[in-house]
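dumping this here so i dont lose it again. seq + smiles for zinc ion
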Amino acid sequence: MNPDSQEPSKLLAWSDCMPPTPPIGTVVGTACGGTVQFVATTPCVYYRGQPVYFCLPICKAGLESDPRNSCLALNTGR
Ligand SMILES: [Zn+2]
């Protein structure tokens, strides 16, 4: 089930990631366009059915406070 795909106009619907998480140390791409080594505190959300990681908690905080100007919005380009 992926309700997000049916609502393209819905503003950056996302939800917090749930386990399982990648193994500690896995290099993951971030919403900001970089990469980080995944650690237990790496912020993560599900967006469009996929896990999206953030380099810093402040990056996720940006998504929460101002989704349209977050790096996730900027890097997904819509
Ligand atoms: Zn970032």
